TrEMBL record:
Family assignment from sequence similarity: Belongs to the metallo-dependent hydrolases superfamily. HutI family.
UniProt name for this protein: Probable imidazolonepropionase
MF GO annotations: imidazolonepropionase activity; metal ion binding
Gene Ontology biological-process annotations: L-histidine catabolic process to glutamate and formamide; L-histidine catabolic process to glutamate and formate
Transmembrane segments: none
Keyword match Iron: yes
EC number: 3.5.2.7
Length: 435
């Protein structure tokens, strides 16, 4: 196929497709044998989409007269889909490093919630920060996520708890969508906590009567495009009735339901999400057996967050039971001031060690299934013709090293590519760049 193209990756030792038949997601049995090609090449077109994937000789012959903006020899290396982080809170001011020692000494989430620390500390600082200050720190965090291989990231608001600051956060996310080479799925999370001075019912009424109508107006005007609606359904925060009201109101204006549930107490969040047609529910440390069954039937993804359970010393989500029951299991970093981790390779490692997932299951959960949780598995999450050319190249002859080398991704990842464009290049590969 003659003509100009953006990128040729050739001679990869392993080219990990993850799936190659247009699957929306992979269940347990589908993860048992991930699609992997050896001595393979791929081509990304000028539109940023994958044009061809196959054996190196076949690709070389098919594109013998073509020109490429960039050619990378992947001999001895592995090519994987760009990683998808299905749950983050990356826009905020006011870190909580000072609380870490208190948590290690046994202080609970509710201690901070009711005594002025925790989320309320971050909310106070986020409200005071300018939009420019928030964008600067957000951009830096996204750059660190990219260097760790993430090419599509779900990004929440939720540290405003009033309309003005929530919109400020969403404008920051929108600005990054337009100006940075990384995929973003934006989430309105104004029901992240109950604001001081309000009851949960009052906060719910404010969100339904004021916040969501404003979001609909801004969407219609093209100023802000929000993808998902989130609520922290938890004892002492938003109960099941308030959660239902907010999620349904968000769904009514076209937002995907993707919310926090069953983290600290069993709330029957999973059952509610399945009933409402939720795309995904996160956390689920305290999910019921009935909730797991309901999620499997509803094809509602479980976004599991092993870093949170690890750092907060919670019991681990029942990943194995979910997989055995037919739930679509995805992974996220839950990056936030309370669980500070940018690295999906580390998340996958923890999922394997602490949640007893296989490496195949963890990779599928951080690619195709995480993309499904965001409603984007038609364009992201696997290496297939027609999908976006988001890729990670690692300096290893086996892809499993991305999970095996705990904390080693900075030395292991050679290139991160978005839409066929190299947006991170390890310094040993030539020019030091993050462009």
């Amino acid at each position: 196929m003659a003509g100009p193209h953006r990128l040729l990756l050739e001679n990869a030792q392993q080219l990990v497709l993850v799936c190659g038949r247009g699957q929306e997601y992979l269940l347990r049995d589908g993860c048992a044998s991930l699609a992997v090609l050896r001595d393979a090449s791929l081509v990304v077109g000028l539109d940023g989409c994958i044009k061809a994937v196959g054996q190196a000789d076949a690709i070389r012959n098919k594109f013998s007269g073509a020109t490429f903006e960039r050619v990378i020899d992947c001999s001895g290396k592995c090519v994987l889909p760009g990683l998808v982080d299905a749950h983050t809170h990356p826009v905020w001011a006011g870190d909580r490093v000072h609380e870490f020692a208190m948590k290690l000494a046994g202080a609970s989430f509710f201690f901070f919630l009711f005594f002025g620390g925790g989320i309320h500390f971050t909310v106070e600082h986020t409200r005071k920060a300018t939009e420019e200050e928030l964008f600067t720190t957000f951009k830096h965090r996204l750059e660190r996520m990219r260097r760790a291989g993430s090419t599509l990231v779900e990004c929440k608001s939720g540290y405003g708890l009033n309309l003005e600051t929530e919109l400020k956060m969403l404008r920051v996310i929108e600005r990054a969508k337009q100006s940075m080479d990384i995929g973003i799925s934006s989430t309105y999370c104004g029901a992240h906590s109950v604001p001081r001075g309000k009851t949960a019912t009052e906060a719910t009424d404010d969100i339904i009567n004021n916040h969501l109508p404003k979001l609909k107006e801004l969407k219609l005007s093209g100023e802000i495009h929000v993808n998902n609606i989130d609520v922290f359904c938890e004892k002492g925060v938003f109960d099941l009735v308030s959660t239902r009201r907010i999620l349904q109101a968000g769904k009514d204006i076209g937002l995907q339901i993707n919310f926090h549930g069953d983290e600290l107490h069993p709330m029957k969040s999973a059952e509610l999400g399945a009933e409402l047609g939720a795309r995904a529910i996160s956390h689920l440390e305290e999910v019921s057996d009935e909730g797991i069954t309901a999620m499997a039937r509803a094809k509602c993804a479980a976004v599991l967050l092993p870093t949170t359970a690890y750092m907060l010393r919670l019991k681990q989500p029942q990943a194995r039971k979910m997989l055995e029951e037919g739930v679509i299991v995805a992974l996220g970093s839950d990056f936030n001031p309370n669980a500070y981790c940018f690295s999906m390779p580390m998340v996958m490692h923890l999922a394997c060690v602490n949640m007893k997932m296989s490496m195949n299951e963890a990779l599928a959960a951080a690619t195709i299934n995480a993309a499904y949780a965001l409603g984007k598995s038609d364009t992201h999450g696997s290496i297939e013709t027609g999908k976006q050319g988001d890729l990670v190249i690692i300096n290893s002859s086996r892809w499993e090293h991305l999970i095996y080398q705990f904390g080693g991704h900075e030395a292991l990842i050679d290139y991160v590519i978005v839409k066929g464009k190299v947006i991170y290049q390890n310094e040993r590969c030539g020019t030091i760049s993050s462009y």
